[in-house]
Amino acid sequence: MTAEVQNHLDTSRELLCVRELSLEYLRRNPFAAVRIETAALRDVSFDLRTGETLALVGPSGSGKSSLARCLVLLERPSTGRILYGGQDILTLSPDALKAVRKEIHLVFQDSASALNPRRTVEQLVAEPLVIHDAASGARKIKERVAEVLDQVELGNSWRCHRPRELSGGQRQRVAIARALVLRPKLLILDEALSSLDLSAQAQIANLLLDLQERHSLAYVYVTHDVRMAGCLAHEVALLDAGRIVYRGLPAEVLTPNLQPVS
Amino acid sequence: MVRVARRILHGLLLLLGVSTLSFVLVSAAPGNFFDELKLNPQISASTVASLKMAYGIDKPWPVRYERWLRSALRGEFGYSLSYRCPVGTLLWPRAQNTLLLTSLATLLAWMIAVPWGILEALNRGKWLDRIGGGVTAIFLAIPELVLGLLFLLLAARTGWFPTGGMFSSHGAEAALLGKLPDLGIHLVLPVVALVFGAAPLLIRYVRSAVAAVLDAPFIEAARGHGLSTTRIVYRHALPAAANSLISLLGFSIGALLSTSLIIEVVLDWPGLGPLVLESLLARDTYVVMAVVMLSSVFLVTGNLLADLLLYASDPRIRTV
Predict the structure, then answer these.
(1) CB proximity B159 to A under 8 Å
(2) What homologous superfamily does CATH list for B96-318?
């Protein structure tokens, strides 16, 4: 049995398998003709099943956001594999990759800047449908947008507003609606709740749990907030200096007062 | 519509302010057109005084300003003491020549700057950006006067291009269509000199405006959907960077009359440049005033156009 087949058998039950992922940023020293390599991720491996949440917890600079960006291919990892549905997305053809991109979406921390300020809520939510040619005709697009705005509990009356006319919580709902509109299987939530106040955090967290239950969504929840990680995640991975230093159930990883174990 | 009317009214008030201030400053400058005549022993002091009276130079500035304002409203802009004709008749043909030159140069400079700036922004830190940055830095450091002299030298040494004027002696007599190739060859050097002067600054602006937008998270989000670089640039980055570029375009339009004065003098283009220089040296006040006012009209109009373009292109401005 070849290693590839073995690997496929091992990962067939998982939606996402990350294997020995490393990422190095190269920067030039302006005073010397040398390139400096900064390791953002080192041999990161984890699995995620459909309908489950993996929280990546760690301090600033631990590589959480770099990992999130790698998962949606905004960064190209130096080494390693990202297996989605059993296929390595790093080796896919552009057409095959486009199909995968429909199923994986990143929700950014700062929705105020992650949403194009010139567009209306309706245009923003409809954009992925247009990019991926996933709905034919303006009427079908409008219907899908209305449906998904309803799912994120943002009234249809907001569809003509622009991001700056919305509250932080409403903007994050738009960002989630934008991610949901293509009926994805996996959402990467990069500090998606961090910029919100407590009440908005609770509302969006409940919304995420509800959406997960209804659509069997899998989440990679990147956060430094261990409390929220404990509430949302089925599994928690602690990141430090680009490595996963501990992985386990929230109860194992977090102490009773919701702090990571040392 | 109300917004446009309000902006036009603001522009008119601004032009009135500019004209008053310019007139006061020009009047306050020591000396006038007739001072040179005083040095001539054959002309008596009483003749000079009567000439001043005849042209109204002896009147206080508010009276002269009021007369000039009436004349400007008729399109005459006062009377040129050097050329002995209304300034308007002197100005319009030369302004047309200047506009022909600068419009062409501005259009070419933008046509070069936008794709070049985008290309540099997309390749930040790479060799293309570095070479582009070095080339634009060199041209930014060269004064327009030096550029003009270099091109004049090129024309004189090679004989490939005429060293000045708008038509050659045989070309000026030809029919309109026959004039065009002659006009074209005369335009080459001044246009190229102006493009070399203007494009580097525009390239820098376009590069920084597009580069700032390319770092925005909403562009990252678009990239995350797998959009091609071309679509990201044209559908997301350029519209977002357009505001600062439209404002810059307004300034480009506003500077159409004043941007080429030095090049026109050096390369002997029969536009406003040589006229302004001669009038300044001769203290022909009304010609200078007319050119200042015409430049101000262009600046105000350029800004108004930029405002209207911003209004049309950015939906956020429409909802304010």
Answers:
(1) no
(2) MetI-like (1.10.3720.10)
CB contact under 8 A, A113 and B319: no
Residue B206, min C-alpha distance to chain A (Å): 19
Average pLDDT over chain A, rounded to an integer: 82
Query: Considering chain B, what is the average pLDDT of its residues?
Result: 84
Position A122 in a domain: yes
Tell whether A47 is covered by a domain. no
pLDDT at B277 over 90: no
What residue ranges do the domains of chain B occupy? 2-87, 96-318
Indicate the pTM of the whole model: 0.75
What stretch of H or E contains A190?
strand A186-190
Provide the ipTM: 0.73
Nearest to B252 by CA among B137, B51, B109, B146: B109
Question: What CA–CA distances, in Å, run from A15 to A9, A71, A176, A184, A246?
Answer: 13, 13, 20, 12, 21
Per-residue model confidence as pLDDT tens digits over B123-165 = 888 888 889 999 999 989 888 888 888 888 888 888 888 877 7
Give the span between the Cα atoms of B125 and B57, in whole angstroms.
Answer: 61
* Distance from the A153 Cα atom to the nearest Cα atom in chain B, whole angstroms: 22
Q: Cβ of B225 and A108 within 8 Å?
A: no
